[in-house]
Write a structure and sequence with these properties.
Layout: E1 3-7, H1 12-24, E2 29-31, H2 42-56, E3 60-64, H3 68-74, E4 82-84, H4 88-96, E5 102-106, H5 112-123, H6 131-139
Parallel strand pairs: 1-2, 1-3, 3-5, 4-5
Bound molecules: D-ribose (RB5).
InterPro entries: RpiB, RpiB_LacA_LacB, RpiB_LacA_LacB_sf
Protein name: Ribose 5-phosphate isomerase B
Keywords: Isomerase
Amino acid sequence: MKIAIASDHGGFHLKQAILNFLEEKEYLYQDFGCYSTDSVDFPEYARLVSKEVVQNQSLGILCCGTGIGMSIAANKVHGVRASVVSDPFSAIMTRKHNNSNIICLGERTLGKDLALLLLDLWLSTEFEGGRHQKRLEKIE
Ligand code: RB5
């Protein structure tokens, strides 16, 4: 499974740090941009990653200034469960209970080390299924 990743200009530096992390941990990924700090519109990048995640039933990472704009845009795509995460408990629970398939991280709200810790927790936690599955079906 390839992890789909993108950022806007506000999340560009965090995305670069995450790419290094993914390389070190030997995750497969596809980088959908952006490729510099030139100003871009985050919904375009959220859409690219969201489409990829839904089509391939994979996971995605979106970075912007706060993670919020990316999550709002990503959740417009049917089948996406995107979560802005800023604490370790939420990083775990949004996988265990919500089976989130996209994590949204804010470069301007999180330090790099915290962002990478949250991502590591999120990637290594499995969905519990069971009673949570029917709730996800109700969202659909
Ligand atoms: C860009 O300045 C900023 O608005 C964007 O990165 C993001 O934080 C939006 O939610």
